[in-house]
Design goal:
240 residues; alpha/beta; seven-stranded mixed beta sheet; 7 strands; globular
């Protein structure tokens, strides 16, 4: 366990993030819970503890973790799955107020178990499809930041996520390669949904050659009430 903690802390140090002992313990316990629950439900294909630290934890915090450390904001993590990037960001940035959203009740059960086990505050998991939750006044255009990681192509993802972003806030899409092509394909959809020009930041995960991208889209205008369309429509007929 000491070796894993050292590896974790050194990995985050390369990101410019100094973890406290409490934060390190939270990440290590999160990894344990992920592997335990993964035996009975599909949460991640990555099961090596060091790879979890790099490909899930570090990737979640690599680009935006440091800048959010002392900046209280409301964040929605759409299609949160096993909690990435929402839970790692919460561990690193405890002042964030976070809503994790997922369409599968089993995954929401896992997220709630992690929240309880790690004694995390001002974070909750909500069961529902993005298309439905975005019509709810409690969530629509209420967030400073909305994140999504490996959920769908950007033209589809923009329709899921931009309705949650308040004017002046940002939508952050975690991607691997091909981010510029996706951003170009999504330009029309982003404009329709009230977003501005997409900017892309490319990065590599510390100590590896894994190339990643973060697409940032600022919300300039209110999203028309017609969006998002009913469940399944965005995937079949992406905006353009």
């Amino acid at each position: 366990m000491e070796a894993r903690q050292k590896y974790l802390e050194e990995t985050f140090e390369k990101l410019g993030i100094c973890l406290s002992d409490e934060q390190s313990s939270a990440f290590l316990r999160y990894a344990e819970l992920l592997l335990i629950w993964n035996e009975k439900m599909n949460l991640t294909a990555i099961t090596d503890p060091q790879e979890i630290m790099i490909k899930h934890f570090a990737d979640s915090c690599a680009v935006i973790g440091k800048e959010l450390e002392n900046s209280p904001k409301k964040l929605a993590d759409v299609g949160s799955g096993a909690g990435f990037p929402g839970i790692p960001l919460k561990i690193v940035c405890p002042d964030l107020e976070i809503v994790l959203m997922d369409s599968l009740q089993k995954r929401v059960g896992f997220l709630n178990a992690v929240i309880q086990e790690l004694s995390l505050k001002k974070i909750r998991a909500v069961h529902g499809r993005a298309e439905d939750l975005a019509k709810d006044r409690e969530f629509r255009e209420q967030f400073d930041l909305v994140t999504a990681r490996a959920v769908a192509p950007l033209p589809v993802l923009a329709e899921y996520c931009l309705p949650f972003v308040k004017i002046g806030g940002e939508f952050l899409a975690y991607k691997a390669t091909g981010a510029k092509e996706e951003a170009d394909q999504a330009a029309g959809a982003i404009r329709i949904l009230g977003g501005g020009k997409a900017t892309i930041r490319e990065y590599s995960l510390p100590g590896t050659d894994y190339q990643r991208s973060l697409i940032r889209i600022k919300k300039d205008r209110q999203t028309p009430k017609a969006y998002p369309r009913k469940a399944g429509t965005a995937g079949k007929k992406p905006l353009g």
